[in-house]
Amino acid sequence: MAKKTxxxxxxxxxxxxxxxxxxxxxxxxxxxxxxxxxxxxxPRASTFHCxxxxxxxxxxxxxxxxxxxxxxxxxxxxxxxxxxxxxFDMSVLAGETRFPFRLQAEQFKLVELTAEQLALEAPxxxxxxxxxxxxSQTADTVSVAVDQNGTSDVLTADWLLGCDGAxxxxxxxxxxxxxxETYPVPNVTLGINFDFTGHIRGLLNxxxxxxxxxxxxxxxxxxxxxxxxxxxxxxxxxxxxxxPENVQLQLNTVLPxxxxxxxxxxxxxxIHKRVASDFRVGRILLAGDAAHLNSPSGGFxxxxxxxxxxxxxxxxIAVERGADAAVLDRYxxxxxxxxxxxxxxxxxxxxxxxxxxxxxxxxxxxxxxxxITQDRALMKDFLMESALIASxxxxxxxx
Length: 399
Ligand SMILES: Cc1cc2nc3c(=O)[nH]c(=O)nc-3n(C[C@H](O)[C@H](O)[C@H](O)COP(=O)(O)OP(=O)(O)OC[C@H]3O[C@@H](n4cnc5c(N)ncnc54)[C@H](O)[C@@H]3O)c2cc1C
Known about the structure:
By secondary structure, this protein is of the alpha+beta class. It has a domain of 237 residues: FAD/NAD(P)-binding domain (3-Layer(bba) Sandwich), CATH 3.50.50.60. It is built from twelve helices and 22 strands.
């Protein structure tokens, strides 16, 4: 019997686990090394775009994920006080996707779903509490140094995939650059156990609000809670931004209430815009946040990472079936192009639009967006970009 190709994946985040499940199903022997003692339950991403749902559908996962989230067939930019809005109708994408809506579901729901499938199809292949500390390779094999339960070990495989997030040990071990910038203002993300539906005029399941005081915030409705994102007031320290009294103050500017809000999650994130200088060195490849970071505005990081996972596994499967390993360089060309030209550029534009403080510039931008929403052809073009359908297709066409 032919020897099975062995792949080590570092990181049991959404990108690592989608990659693992695809490779297990293609007959690879896969080991996932995860430093945490269990799957992360941090909400982080909550937006799944239709391009990603179409891909997950090919694995039989989309409908199950949708059942764990909440769909948003419309979403909007809105002046909070006056109610002037540009409302995007996702139904214009009906001919392009099986899923013409945004899905609001925390990223751990995809992590849980893929882990459940892996437990059925390849039990025990995720090793928790296994921290990778270094990587090396020869022409034929990769080696990974792992610390687990206080003991050090070295594992070998045919391929190593670094899906180990922003501070990727794999990327650092390869000596790759990670040029870019860190945005000056952080972002606070809240998960609130209170149903705002019916309390705020015109509220949809996905909202980007501009307030009259020059501030801005987003509100997304997942199945279980409302998520709110905002930048803390200028000059406020990170520590103060997360103080319960300041969090309650922010919530009360949106909807004043005598009882305190039940805030289940309050996190502060620095926002980066960076791309690794390469996504491949020999037998070691990067995907997801390990390879690229962008502002969460618009919900592209995880979606782009899942797109990487599909592209990369398709190429690895081709190599397994006899293609030249150079096809992996096409993965790099395609997904690096998507990261730089689409994901970074659009999320940067979104970041700046959401935080635009100038009322005159906001008005011009709102009018531009309203004009787009009033023309279905223009709205479709806009949504093809914001749902990453156009980006995915452009990347696939890169030779
Ligand atoms: C507030 C916020 C909101 C966001 N919203 C969205 C959104 O709506 N839509 C969207 O698409 N994206 C969004 N993102 C981005 C999204 O969260 C990330 O892009 C996504 O988590 C990337 O997945 P990943 O699997 O590449 O990395 P991660 O999710 O970071 O997973 C990496 C895994 O590797 C493990 N690991 C790290 N180092 C090691 C090591 N040395 N050894 C072993 N294991 C290791 C970690 O423990 C972790 O489990 C958001 C981000 C933030 C901060």
